[in-house]
Amino acid sequence: xxxxxxxxxxxxxxxxxxxxxxxxxxxxxxxxxxxxxxxxxxxxxxxxxxxxxxxxxxxxxxxxxxxxxxxxxxxxxxxxxxxxxxxxxxxxxxxxxxxxxxxxxxxxxxxxxxxxxxxxxxxxxxxxxxxxxxxxxxxxxxxxxxxxxxxxxxxxxxxxxxxxxxxxxxxxxxxxxxxxxxxxxxxxxxxxxxxxxxxxxxxxxxxxxxxxxxxxxxxxxxxxxxxxxxxxxxxxxxxxxxxxxxxxxxxxxxxxxxxxxxxxxxxxxxxxxxxxxxxxxxxxxxxxxxxxxxxxxxxxxxxxxxxxxxxxxxxxxxxxxxxxxxxxxxxxxxxxxxxxxxxxxxxxxxxxxxxxxxxxxxxxxxxxxxxxxxxxxxxxxxxxxxxxxxxxxxxxxxxxxxxxxxxxxxxxxxxxxxxxx
Length: 421
Prior knowledge:
Elements (H helix, E strand, L loop, with lengths): L1 H20 L6 E3 L2 E3 L1 H13 L3 H12 L1 H20 L4 H21 L3 H28 L15 H16 L3 H13 L3 H17 L7 H22 L6 H18 L7 H4 L3 H18 L10 H9 L12 H30 L1 H5 L3 H20 L7 H25 L6
Antiparallel strand pairs: 1-2
């Protein structure tokens, strides 16, 4: 029995490392297929830790768990779209779909008990924290006092790490000082997606529990430590070409140029600089035109980049993909694909709502896990409105889906809840 428990604990810790690898900005290509460290370690995990995983999954959970079944159907629809409308991307989409179905079941498996689920969360938060501080260290060593966004994927961890620490503080009253540090780093990162995601989680936590959470101590500490931090940091914010002053100035100038010169018929990226606002306006125009032409089934999975290059009538290739996952799904998979995607989100929301009272009436670990799952779900739903077309978009709805499914099953088995599966 001890050996079995040790194996489950090892699995949960290994799995969080695999998830954290998704936020690393490292990839390499083999015959045109992009490979990440995440892919290699997931395959190793599958064969070493779960030799009979696929057989067990197909025999039971894919057929009986409605969350995983709906996810499977969504991936199948996307694959059919790729097969008929964009055959070149079919192999890539197939591999990615299988990969994430495996990841879903692996997370579901370790989430079936309080101990392994807690180890998964603890390891994931720790790994996220390590990546956050390594990212900050890299930027500071390269002269970026603020704006920790040069490594791309890790920039999304700032808001996620702060959200997880906020849950820990509210439920277990732990890591208050670390929470304040992470909030400051999230602000200094200048990553607007992280700001919105963290604010969304904080608001939703208060709204979700339908009560006022006492955060007076947190606010007092924020002011106290904020004054000290400001005295140390502010002098450096206006030093060097990467200072916050220069970045704000560039943003303002870019927006002025955009307002004065932007044209859908002649998109000049050099004129408006690197403004993501210009790119988003252009992408919305393209999405509207594409949706009018293919409203039901879309233009095909993986065709967004290819079609927008035709739409732009430009060879600069500067606008390459959507900045909104919901927008991308609507364009590529039409109203049918978006309806299935929203159905997944709605089912997750309803699933969490149905078990709220029972989950919060149990021990502190159940409360803590419930709040963490809610935070990941909310943060991911917000982030996907500003990010699209990547592995992290799938991660942000696959992880809460797997955890909600396993959490519900854990409650049903151990607490005899009387909700309908």
